[in-house]
Predict the structure.
Amino acid sequence: MTLLPPPDPSDPSDPNDPNEPTHPTDRTAVRPLRRIGAVILALLGGAVGVAAGGLMILVAAAVAPQPVVFLGAGAVTLLVVTAVVARGALAAGRGRHGWRAAWIAGAAWTALVAVGFGLLFLRPFPEMGEGPVPADVRFWELTDGSRLAYLASPATAADWKPTPVVFLHGGPGTPDEGLPYGTEELSAAGYDVYSYDQIGAGRSTRLDDVTGYTVARNVADLEAVRELVGAEQMILIGQSWGGSLAAQYLAAHPDRVAKVAFTSPGEIWPDAHPDTDVSPWGELTGASRRRYDELMSDPRFLLQAVLLENSPQAAHRLVGDAESDSRLHEIAVAGRDLGGCPGGPPGEGEVHQNPQGFYTNQLTNADFERIDDPRPVLRTVRTPALILRAECDYVPWIDTREYRDTLPDATLVYIPGAGHGITGDAGPAYLQAILGFLAGEPLDGYTGADDPAR
């Protein structure tokens, strides 16, 4: 009689299980397959855990924008999902259902991912050093407690004019350094001149709630500026995005604008020509392109961008104003030559120390995409308007022409030899057009339908 050997306690197979191989060589062949399957399951579980943790970060950020909360929720989700899958992997590989080993595996994987996440996403960007506020910078106090930094140049002529000139800078979020080009001549012509940093930019207040950066907020601030300077009407000169803002203010307060000049203006309304691209970044080449790509592909910057779409407050609390503004400055430096004509001297317009505003740039632009069409109102406004179109402006011609086609009392003047930063090499022509317009002189306006540069 043949005696069967006693069962091996280390053998997880069940001899009474009809699904178990009955021959020892069969069991030997199955075990490696189980182990391979367990390894595959463990790897898949790790990936699933990371994906689930990332999704939980976004979900939690939308509800509770504090980083410790939404990052913690992601870590807990990663741990739990990984542990559950690890338990299944251990069962598949060894036939045992031990939770202790599964939790240890989950904790180890979570710690490893956390270290990698911290190195990739939680290392702050370098911050620009803040210099002292120049002595000539003043501040307007708004009713909500925020402040707008501004510079003023009083009229120097005896023939003082009661309607001040207010410059509106571009961006959104990219203020000038000092008073704009032509200020001295405007003051000499009898105008008080003001240039201010829009909310969230330059030396003006950064909002705690970044969702407050809207087009309507900028329009309301400009109306507050008019009241603070004690003027019944203003003359607006809007550069780039400042032109878009001037159009919005004109639509909301047409009786408060005596005259308006749009210099290299951005879109009057994004949906007017949705197929056009007003961004210049596709024109970058060489070292500038490589630097731009490097900045834009930074993992922390990408995480910030994802959070901005999902929960702007979470993005703001994870990546604060100081480092975000510094990153926007670096991006602007990479594109410093985009404001001029090809082959021209190196650009300098974006390389200044007046801090740029990242969150007002991103969220005001996003809000601009959602606003109602101002053109029906603007078609009824008889305010004299000047549109200056530069030869090498990267804003599509049809977007500039829309101002002339919309405003009934508008004149479009073509400025050769200039780019988007229109006061560069063509400063004298720019200033001549502005002063002539304000003085009521007839201007040589362009009335054609095609781009005058072509």
